[in-house]
Amino acid sequence: MPRIARVEPLTTARALRGPFDYLAVDGIGVGALLRVPFGHREVTGVVVDLRDHTQVPEEKLVAPRRVLPQSLPPALVDLAYWMAREYCSTFARAVGLMLPPSRAREKTALWAEPVAGAEGRLTDAQRELLASLPRLAGPDLAALRRLERRGFVTLAPRAQRRAPTHVAVGARRPAPRLTADQEAALAAIAAAAPDERLLLHGVTGSGKTEVYLRAVGACLERGEGAIVLVPEIALTPQIVSRFVERFGDTVAVLHSALSDGERHDEWLRLRRGEARVCVGPRSAVFAPIDRLGLIVIDEEHDSSYKHEGDPRYDARLVAEQRGCLVVAGSATPRPESWHAMRRIEMARRVDGQRLPPVEIVDMREQRAALHPRTYAALLDAPKSIVLLNRRGWSNFLTCRTCGRAWECPNCDVTLVLHRAGGYLACHHCGHRERVPDRCPDCGSVSVARHGAGTERLSEELAAAGLRTLRLDADVGRAGAVLAEFEAADRAVLVGTQVVAKGHDFPDVTLGVVLDADATLRFPDFRAEERTFALIAQLAGRAGRGPGGGRVLVQTTDPDAAAIRAAARHDAEGFVAGELRRREALRYPPFSTLIRVVCSSERPGAALEVATAVHARLPAALGPAPLFRLRGRERAQVVVKAADRAHAVAAVDEAVRAEHRRGVSISVDVDPQ
């Protein structure tokens, strides 16, 4: 009776339905990676099941070509199947997110080991070299080879770890004495069921990170592993530093900015159990940790936990499928989390300081980017953080004579001026062109620049004599910028929403939000939620030290409910009102939204396919054309449903039925 290995080939074909049967070889289990013949080629596959087969003769089964050294925990195989179903994707695309880089291999170096009891005549230099062993052979290889021939040492390859480097931000600190709120939170976590979901609702500065550290420490003491998810690893170096400082080499870091070799080695340390804690952004939710006891989701409100590729997974929901306790923390939780999770409240800052007062600055009569009151406050404050959620110098350019606007040739959007680099850029597709000196349509040299971005604001503040640092997607090196800001005696940190993400600088006494109502103008049911979170998070960066602080919020809509609630630091009142509104309108968490986007370079093709998909989903909204992106026309269909499982299955069936050459179809369950 042959033993069958059921294998899912890792191909991108959406129509391919596995698994396929191969002859099982000794020593493999569920999760093993194999190289198998598949048609006229050889591909990598994952073993998803092993069974005896009574109907197929052994000689008719094809054997795998080789067994690869890596393997996945069986629990991740099950998770990949769940993701394929939940996000209308394929097993291969889901499991591909869980594997180490395919091109990376373990790095080895030649090491010398002394041979015990070896005797002989040695020179002083040879005795000194021998006394320094074991060591990396390196430049002493020739001398060590001579000692090897005489039987004094053994030279052998040894795995060499490619360790990520971390930018240390924040002073080293001993484990502090816990506040009453922190002790209560840890007691609630310790008493929770092994697979429960908890929401740690703590005001900014309440000490949530210390609660995470203690909870992970308790997890390690039980012999279990933990995952700590953070929004963006480059923007939150402080929390990485805290975990590495507390747990040392037990911590592995996984994120896309690592080299393939570094990611491979960190993944392998987790798989072997050499590291038991993984810190990273959303992809770290797939860390191959056995006996996983806890997943922490820091700043759980952050939209970066949603993946934009296929499958468009939400790391917050994936975490709940890993069969362990989940603790999600935020000062501004999502209504979905508030509605579904048991809450733990941490209402006071660890230093006893009150949250900083928030002043709403009415900009309806102002034309300058900064109100005089804001400008004076910036000149007076030793350290400030200013949030303006627009990159570049100006939003767009127009010709004053003929009205021409400079637009992207690939997308239906205007180009943004980046004056320091001397170019106009599209923030969607990356197209660039030089700054015009005249209008190509009418020849006029009168070109108007509209709006202000972080580049312009930082230059204007620097011209006023303020030391200004900028943090946005155009600058990069976020860790170095934050370290420089921390070390400065006086400085202003200007940036997009990244400046509001979890930074802890006790000497910041002023926070400023410019154009606070910009997000309210988006046609999105989450616009109020995002506006509230952005203001409240930035407000939390100020007044953490003994000097206290204040926050100024500039807006042309000073009566907006989200802005008023953020000024009162009233997360509970805001979320309660938001949940009432969403229940009345049947928006999440009281329904499920699914977005199907069709795109094509061929005119009319995207709308044609979207129309056909809509015909199979009569209750859906659409089809609706969208703005052109990266040279492709797009059209979408939106499904709103009370029965999530039924809706996902119906969309998946409709998309598979309308698959056509030259048209890409993207399915986004829970679009953000």
Describe the fold and architecture:
The protein is an alpha/beta fold and 672 residues long. α5 (180-191) packs parallel to α6 and α14 runs parallel beside α15. The strands form seven sheets. Strands 11-12-10-13-14-9-15 form a seven-stranded parallel beta sheet, with helices on both faces. A six-stranded parallel beta sheet has the order 16-26-25-17-24-23, with helices on both faces. It has a five-stranded antiparallel beta sheet with strand order 2-1-4-3-5, covered by helices on one side. The longest helix is centred in the last third of the chain and has 15 residues, at 571-585. It contains 18 helices and 30 strands. β3 (32-38) and β4 form a beta hairpin.
Span of the ends, CA to CA: 51 Å
* Coarse shape: globular
Cα Rg: 29 Å
Q: Structural class of the helices, strands and pairings?
A: alpha/beta
Low-confidence parts: none
Strand percent estimate: 15-25%
The profile of the biggest β sheet is:
7 strands, parallel
In short:
This protein has about 675 residues and is α/β, with parallel strands linked by helices. The chain is about 30% helix and about 25% strand.
Features:
alpha/beta; seven-stranded parallel β-sheet; six-stranded parallel β-sheet; globular
Give the helices and strands, then pairings.
Elements: E1 3-9, E2 20-23, E3 32-38, E4 41-52, E5 66-71, H1 74-86, H2 91-96, E6 108-114, H3 124-131, E7 135-136, H4 141-149, E8 153-159, H5 180-191, E9 197-202, H6 208-221, E10 225-229, H7 237-247, E11 251-253, H8 260-272, E12 277-280, E13 292-297, H9 315-320, E14 325-330, H10 335-340, E15 342-346, E16 358-362, H11 372-380, E17 383-387, E18 396-399, E19 416-418, E20 423-425, E21 432-434, E22 447-450, H12 454-463, E23 468-471, H13 478-487, E24 491-495, E25 510-513, H14 527-539, E26 550-555, H15 561-567, H16 571-585, E27 592-600, H17 605-616, E28 621-629, E29 632-641, H18 644-657, E30 664-669
Parallel strand pairs: 9-14, 9-15, 10-12, 10-13, 11-12, 13-14, 16-26, 17-24, 17-25, 23-24, 25-26
Antiparallel strand pairs: 1-2, 1-4, 3-4, 3-5, 6-7, 6-8, 18-22, 19-20, 20-21, 27-29, 27-30, 28-29
